[in-house]
Amino acid sequence: AASGLLWPSIHMLALVSCSATALVLSPARRAGNLQMLAVEEFAISKEIKSVRVFDGEYADDICDEVAAAARACIAEKGSFSLCIPGGSVVAALAQMPADAFDASKVHLFFANEKIPSYPCKEGGLDAAKKLGVPEANVHAFGEGEPAAVAESYSSLLASHASIDNSGAVPSVDMLLLGTGPDGHVGCLFPDSAEIKASRAGKVVLAGNDARADGDFVAISLDVMNAAKCVIVSAAGAGRAEMVAKALAGNFGPFDCPAGLVEAEEETLWFTDKESIAVFDEFADIEDEDELEEE
Asked: What is this structure's pTM?
């Protein structure tokens, strides 16, 4: 597997620096000038994004994370709910060792689907076969009009025993997401009606967008952020500008959906040297500005 580097402390969010429209990635620090009776000042920080930079392919590393989460969830509650997209991210699961976990306890759900072509279902069934997941445990979107499909899938997610439904929206154990150079995740595109429906408590949305080749259904950002753990994959130079924008929080309310993804417990960004390059430049400039201020 490619070697990964855990990104440094710049990826710590001081609670006081969180805004409604963006996630500001900044290190917590002590203030230099304290006044009156204060004897010490500190910020309690929450890590919102752990960024790993790989020198090459990282399919094996995705498999490692999925396998570890699967084993832990199966040991704790007897099942593992994994929500998958289409494309290269789910294709990476083909490299999973056959004995990585008890595949009979895994339930696969889908982050999005194009209608009527259903490419994600096809990819998911293929992945399930390679993983040894029973076909009965592959919960694809059904057929029909997008609105009806979305309603039916919302009911499935809200009632399935492998999914935590103790909160406002369903919470899967792990969600895998790919990204586009424009910052879309799943079928949530920048400035679309679907991304603007965030925080409304919707579970599955039906839409039509030329960027998704027409009709589609997709889990909402609310459901993405309710997942216990999310892995966001963003590789290649073509995604470098998007990665810098998403990680720096330098975007508007709805123009970079990938930057809005914040899982309930852990958000892992998997990048490579090409996709992190622009953010590297941004971080270097930030460090220089801080040194000048000091």
From this structure: 0.84
Residue whose structure tokens are 């960027």: 211
Give 108's strand partners: 82, 138
Q: What sign has the CA pseudo-torsion 127, 221, 256, 3?
A: negative
Structure tokens at 58: 């990282």
* Region for 235 from its dihedrals, namely left if φ exceeds 0, alpha if ψ lies in -120 to 50, beta otherwise: beta
Per-residue pLDDT of the chain (294 residues; tens, 9 = 90+): 444 554 433 333 322 222 222 333 443 333 344 344 555 655 555 677 999 999 999 999 999 999 999 999 999 999 999 999 988 899 999 999 989 999 999 999 999 999 999 999 999 999 999 999 999 999 999 999 999 999 999 999 999 999 999 999 999 999 999 999 999 999 999 999 999 999 999 999 999 999 999 999 999 999 999 999 999 999 999 999 999 999 999 999 999 999 999 999 999 999 999 999 999 887 655 555 555 555
CB atoms within 10 A of CB 284: 10
Read off the tokens for 110.
Answer: 């889908």
CB 230 within 8 A of CB 267: yes
